[in-house]
Amino acid sequence: MPSGSGLDCTHHMVNKTRGIITLYRHQRAAFAITSKRGPTPKAPKIPTTELPPGSTISSDNDESKKPLLIQRRGAEFSLTTVARHFGSNFTKSLPYLWENTVGPLRTAVTEKQHIDRQIQLERGDAAAQELVNSLQVLEVMAGAMAAELRPLLLEHLPHLFTCLQHPYTAVRHMAARSVGVLSKIAMLETMNGFLECVLPWLAAIEDCTKQEGAIEALACVMEQLDVDIVPYIVLLVVPVLGRMSDPSDSIRFMATQCFATLIRLLPLESGIPDPPAMSADLIRQKARERDFLEQLLDGRKLENYKIPVPIKAELRKYQQDGVNWLSFLNKYKLHGILCDDMGLGKTLQSICILAGDNYLRAQEYAKTKAADSSPMPSLVVCPPTLTGHWVDEVGKFCSKEYLHPLHYTGPPTERMRLQHQVKKHNLIIASYDVVRNDIDFFRNIKFNYCILDEGHVIKNGKTKLSKAIKQLAANFRVILSGTPIQNNVLELWSLFDFLMPGFLGTERQFAARYGKPILASRDAKSSSREQEAGVLAMEALHRQVLPFLLRRMKEDVLQDLPPKIIQDYYCNLSPLQVQLYEDFAKSRAKASVEDSISSTSTEEEEKPKLKATGHVFQALQYLRKLCNHPSLVLTPQHPEYKRISEQLIGQNSNLRDLQHAPKLSALKQLLLDCGLGGGGGSEGGTEAVVAQHRVLIFCQLKSMLDIVENDLLKPKLPSITYLRLDGSVPAGQRHSIVSRFNNDPSIDVLLLTTHVGGLGLNLTGADTVVFVEHDWNPMRDLQAMDRAHRIGQKRVVNVYRLITRGTLEEKIMGLQKFKMSIASTVITQDNACMQSMGTDQVLNLFSLDKGERGEQTASSSGKDSMKSVLDGLGELWDQQQYDTEYNLDSFMISLQ
């Protein structure tokens, strides 16, 4: 062809179209990954001369954009027409065009070999812009070139791979798109090269640029190949999974998007033969990865995880299965939701993996000193009523040598002090509100594990709390939730946005793909087509999230469960309760009790005066009521009544506020955790609302039942339906109340006194028992528990005991070895009452424990007299005293 005519014309056309294609492609490049490590290099400048003055390229509907789109389409059509016209003679007939297309690519690769990254950046935008232009032309023409020229194109495949490491985002973006096009026209050769050369870069955690180039190239290859990617899926899934926890937001987002596509196509892979020309190494690797995928999709095939540290508990089979699953997630750097039913031991399973991984990580670091195994703390975030429970559970199951928790709580000044203690602990336990308030502190710490207990708290991604929690950085993210999430499809997005951002797309995409069809199918007026679409959407969603959810129902593991699961729910005293407790410690009443107990009478036979014995009981009863609710003791007869009432008015508060009674706050949280009182009916109320759990609430005193009813249920949880059964209900009517509760599942709660509800009743309608107060004799509480746990009960019974920390209540129960008694259900007369305690122990009952138990000391010289006092006290735990509530009016006078 004469050089002066067609070639010059083509050259002019190429030059004209380059700017337009560059402009269009660069708009797309704006969405490419940008490096988060170190300064981000500037993208090549866009030639603005092609844009009409004042125009933008913001949206497809923009009128000013239409001429550019027409020009772009014309340019693409011209280039592809030229390529098809010249066929196999393209490179010979148009050498100048070919050289302008691949020449900058060769030059850039040569420079890459001889010039370091910094010099490349200093050379400025011009070289990068030229490279972007040539790659855009290559992308447009490659698909239209003759099959005979494919070997020539493939010669430049290594050059494209090299450009995936270029410091400029736009260059990497266009190189990735060009690799995608080559995979479409020469799949076998491109994929073999990609799997061997590029895919390993995903694991190059020291080079973010390589990772970004590799993950974007994979996304482009997947987009071009579509279902043709299926034979390679097994080899792609595991490397992509490894990046779903990458510290770089952009890499993590693209990895989760890629994985979401791969996992949906995975069922198609079964039975498809290996592609021809696949190397023996890749075939062996494929076999290994297929084994992994089988475990990912079928928990029964998981390897058994041997916990490397001593755990002071015998794990049941389903609990060991849960730990195996958490270990599997750990091994492949995955994240998930452990949504076992309430009471199946999610806390214990979490402690096992926390302690085990911390130990193995420390061992690895001692051997290798590798940065990726350096010591890191873990974080547990939970509702405020559970922080103390977590600290206690960790201490119960694991020694401080392996897990040393920091209870991060208290007012701001105390938390500021605790921030300096963080480095001394490998586990931090904090409430959601505290993490939200101190997010500036927490987001600057890199955690190993971040566990969200009752993680459905973040189900609304728009709240400040959710946004704060999602700023936490961790190697492994786990959500614990007993709330069934299969029915709350729209809330699932926010949970996965914490675990794996991007995995379920944007919130809008998720709502369109899953939420709308599923909600539409539930409408009573939905058509058969809408119902079918809803079923398909639900199945697709389950298939996508299934590998990252583990849920066991009580019914499924019932044969593996003990008859009762007993858990202590610890509360801290409110400031008002602490004040009253300390006032008691300074009072004449305390001195009188000490006199009674520490009497140094040498006459062993001498019986204590009944008045003295009664005084000890009154003091115990006073403190016990104080633990439950300050209003039970702060009556007008109390010497501090007027002063404290004025103090509360000044604080714009009153005695009935929940903030003064942590037991009521804890009970409220328990009921919410059971699915009660949360409002419900958000989907129009078309379904009957029947709670999954039904609850028995036991109190010793009728006055405490009144407080639960009038201060909590009626004003704070009005949607909870309840019945009440106490001594004021005539015996003849009690059975009808019991029968109604058992047979009407819409009644959520039954309020009882231990005396009335503790014997002779069958309350199998409930599966959860809460003790707001405790009987001195553990036998009575055991009998009360057995109201729900008896023949006919189909579900496991969860027993929760609300205990105020560091007080009479905790000490009595600890000294009685109550847990041990219940675990063995063998209670003898020796440990069934207070007679086995020593003098100093009983004196300690009257002190507020501010530190380690046993901090207070007392003389033990009066042990003989003490035995007599306690013998007398043993007779005072008579039901008549519970019924009359042992009048404390006269006792109040001694509180001066």
Automatic annotation (TrEMBL):
Pfam families: DUF3535, HEAT, Helicase_C, SNF2-rel_dom. It is found in: Nucleus. Residues 36-64 are annotated as: Disordered. Keywords: ATP-binding, DNA-binding, Helicase, Hydrolase, Nucleotide-binding, Nucleus, Repeat. Its main location: nucleus. GO terms for cellular component: nucleus. The keyword Repeat applies. One of its GO terms (molecular function) is TBP-class protein binding. Residues 327-502 form the Helicase ATP-binding domain. PANTHER family: TATA-BINDING PROTEIN-ASSOCIATED FACTOR 172 (PTHR36498:SF1). This is TATA-binding protein-associated factor 172.
